[in-house]
């Protein structure tokens, strides 16, 4: 199978207020250890995106332009302590886990202008070229930090109903020429 990790919670769904409630922190922690006991062969993420207690990866959700990504590993660690929402819940701290930006992107663009109740992070983009440019700029920022950012996941590959954050439409039609992006990606991350 291609399962490399189990994610127990995502963005604290089901445990709101974990940053203020010790019982919810303990619950998150217990889910990590429960999954680790069920499957010790795979990585476990306790709460994807933020509010980590103990996790095999430090996962962060990041929906913003690249200029706000910390420039260095040290800046990244400092930013974990100041982040809102917090990346780690006290008394837990970053302990050398691989840093994965597990949700990035989220640029909203409606290719055919057909979606009535459209939704994306931030302002909706106006055309395919603007989407391509934003995606490429963001990926270049991650490429500059490849020594300390160990991975990322672009959100989303394709649109989900009213969520127009995809690189493809709901029907899997590319919003810009995929080979154009591939050509640029072939120069990065090595």
From TrEMBL:
<feature type="domain" description="Glycoside hydrolase family 2 catalytic">
    <location>
        <begin position="1"/>
        <end position="184"/>
    </location>
</feature>
<protein>
    <recommendedName>
        <fullName>Glycoside hydrolase family 2 catalytic domain-containing protein</fullName>
    </recommendedName>
</protein>
<dbReference type="GO" id="GO:0004553">
    <property type="term" value="F:hydrolase activity, hydrolyzing O-glycosyl compounds"/>
</dbReference>
<dbReference type="Pfam" id="PF02836">
    <property type="entry name" value="Glyco_hydro_2_C"/>
</dbReference>
<dbReference type="InterPro" id="IPR006103">
    <property type="entry name" value="Glyco_hydro_2_cat"/>
</dbReference>
<dbReference type="GO" id="GO:0005975">
    <property type="term" value="P:carbohydrate metabolic process"/>
</dbReference>
<dbReference type="InterPro" id="IPR017853">
    <property type="entry name" value="GH"/>
</dbReference>
């Amino acid at each position: 199978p291609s399962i490399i990790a189990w994610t127990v919670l995502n963005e604290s769904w089901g445990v709101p207020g974990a940053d203020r409630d010790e019982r919810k922190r303990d619950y998150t922690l217990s889910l990590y250890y429960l999954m680790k006991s069920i499957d010790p062969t795979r990585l476990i993420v306790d709460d994807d995106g933020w509010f980590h207690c103990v996790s095999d990866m430090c996962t962060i959700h990041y929906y913003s332009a690249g200029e706000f990504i910390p420039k260095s590993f040290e800046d990244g660690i400092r930013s974990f302590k100041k982040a809102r929402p917090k990346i780690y819940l006290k008394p837990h701290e970053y302990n050398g886990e691989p840093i994965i930006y597990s949700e990035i992107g989220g640029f909203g663009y409606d290719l055919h202008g057909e979606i009535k109740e459209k939704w994306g992070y931030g302002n909706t983009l106006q055309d395919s070229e603007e989407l391509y440019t934003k995606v490429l700029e963001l990926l270049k920022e991650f490429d500059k930090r490849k020594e300390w950012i160990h991975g990322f996941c672009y959100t989303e590959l394709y649109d989900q109903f009213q969520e127009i954050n995809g690189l493809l439409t709901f029907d899997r039609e590319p919003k810009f020429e995929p080979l154009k992006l591939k050509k640029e990606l072939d120069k990065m991350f090595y």
